[in-house]
Amino acid sequence: MTRRKAAILGSSGMIGQRFAHMLEGHPYFDVVAYCASDRSEGRRLRDLWKLADVELPAGLSDAEIDATNPEALAREGVEVVFSGLPSEVAGKVEDECADGGMAVFSNASAHRMEPDTPIMIPEINHGHLRAVERQRERRAKGGFVVTNANCSITGLALGIKPLVDSYGLTDFSVATYQALSGAGYPGVPSIDVLGNVIPHIQSEEEKMNAEGKKILGRYEEDRFVDSPVNILASCARVGVRDGHLEAVFVRRADVPDAEGVASTLERFSSRPQELSLPSAPVQPIIVRREQNRPQPALDCNAGSPERAKGMAVTIGRIRVDGEDLRFFLLVHNTIRGGAGGSVLNAELAHREGLT
Ligand SMILES: NC(=O)c1ccc[n+]([C@@H]2O[C@H](COP(=O)([O-])OP(=O)(O)OC[C@H]3O[C@@H](n4cnc5c(N)ncnc54)[C@H](OP(=O)(O)O)[C@@H]3O)[C@@H](O)[C@H]2O)c1
User: Fold this and answer.
1) Is the pTM of this model over 0.85?
2) Which domains does the chain have, with CATH numbers?
3) Is the CB of 273 under 6 A from ligand 1?
């Protein structure tokens, strides 16, 4: 299989560096350009490496950062773009790449709510990929943008999908405890968050509901139809490096006992697993039965094989009291909720013949 020439936008940031790590030696994609802003142009990846849990792959140490220039990427023959740009920059740059014929897999929110742009989580809505056919009609050279969701809704949507399908649940309440890396680099000032919890993340609660409805909804007759699911969220920033913990509550839930719910979650499997996509976790939802799990420090890298580390969501403390269901859920925000989500989307698009 020919590997597609790829570029990473935002290579000096939290998401861009996860891309660099996850795409090293990838069977489908060959990264030929690492881009960031003019501020980082000419610097080496080794001088900008920010991930504490993984080594910069030796082969990337000398990789030089380019300024972000969609025309130059097109000239270089780049076919696939992985974007870790801030939203305010991503809208224009990603459009220019897609209009130049490239397949763009974005982490930014800029295009998420467009009527022909999917917010993909392939285990949930692989059929939404069809929307890019409509998008290609308006882009001169057949390029397109596929987005992945906000990091906190990614974990929640994966965790509730089997419950929505099996038990018809629609009303979820969630309180989040979100990691610092979710705010990018350097993120929240240390003096604000050290020994503290900040009970506000700009637009996060609204995004969780709006994106959740689109992700869990249907794509039919060339349009997205929202799911009836409602997500009532309260979001907080906590002094954790990686991993968003979420406490989920459902009232009047017609569900079996806790073990029955656990087994429904553990059995969940979908198209990425059928296709054995390289970054697909063998088991997308892992249930822990210990009383003190999941924990960000212990569980945020859940998932196997090696390429899918951090791609599984972990659920624990499942409690069914009368008609009320509660559990905790953990998602790695920069892997499954970030770069890894885009890589999985690109792998699916590649296998579906779109790249
Ligand atoms: N962090 C997460 O958990 C997470 C999860 C899901 C989605 N996202 C989304 O992913 C995107 C990236 O987030 P992040 O956390 O990686 O942010 P970040 O750490 O702040 O990194 C931003 C990157 O964008 C580059 N950049 C900034 N302005 C630019 C410009 N004008 N032109 C070209 N490049 C520019 C930066 O380059 P310089 O270093 O040169 O400035 C840096 O490489 C955001 O849209 C965010 O909302 C983040």
Assistant:
1) yes
2) 4-150+339-351 (3.40.50.720), 151-332 (3.30.360.10)
3) no
